[in-house]
Amino acid sequence: MTIDPTRTAVLGLHWQVNVIEPSGFFGALLAAPVAAGGVVGRATAFHAAAADRGLPVLLTRFTIPEGEGELVRNTGFMNAVADAQNAFRPGAPGAALIPPMAALQTATFDNQKLSGLAGNGLDSWLRSRSIDTLLVTGVATNLTVEQTARHATDLGYTVHVIQDCVAAADQATHTASLANIALTTAGSLTAVQALA
C-alpha cells in the first residue's frame, strides 16, 4: 500500500495500563491474551516504523476526570467503568500509557467514550492537518477498535485496522470483529502491508 505521510496518521487506541497490564482494571480479561499474542511488540514496532516515515502517532486514553467529564452511563460497560472511576482518573497509575507506546507518541487524546474520535479534539486535530487516512491499532478489537473504525469511516476517513496490531479477549471475538471491520471500513491490513 502506498502511504502519503502528509495525509495519514497512526491511531493507537487504549495502550494504557488499565487495558494491557495484569494490574489494570481490564487485566483479568485482556492482559493474558495480549501478552500471549505478542501484540504490544508488533504494535510498538509498527508505530516506530510509521514514525520513521513521518507519520504522526496519535494515542487515546480512556480516562474519567472528576465530575465524570462526558461519560454517559448508558451501557453496562460504561456503568462498570463509572463505578470504578478512580482507577481511570487522568493521573491514576492505570490511566498511564504503557512505556513502549508513550515513547512514540506525537500527541495523546483523552475521552470517556469507546470511539477514540468522540468527545475530544482528535477529529479537529486531524482535519486541521488534512489527514484523511487512519491506520488503527489497539485493544480491544471488538470494543474501541471496531467502534473507532466505524465512527471514523462515518466521518469520512479512510480507515485500515492493522490486524496484527490489535487484540481481543479471545480469538473468536477478534476474528469476528475483524470480519465486521472488513465490511464497514476500507479493510484491515497487516503491519507489513500498511508500510510496504
TrEMBL record:
Q: InterPro entries in the record, alphabetically?
A: Isochorismatase-like_dom, Isochorismatase-like_hydrls, Isochorismatase-like_sf
Keyword terms: Hydrolase
**Statement: the UniProt record of this protein carries the keyword Hydrolase:** yes
Domain annotation Isochorismatase-like: ranges: 13-187
Q: Where is the signal peptide?
A: none
Q: Which PANTHER family match?
A: ISOCHORISMATASE HYDROLASE (PTHR43540:SF1), PEROXYUREIDOACRYLATE/UREIDOACRYLATE AMIDOHYDROLASE-RELATED (PTHR43540)
By what name is this protein known? Answer: Isochorismatase-like domain-containing protein
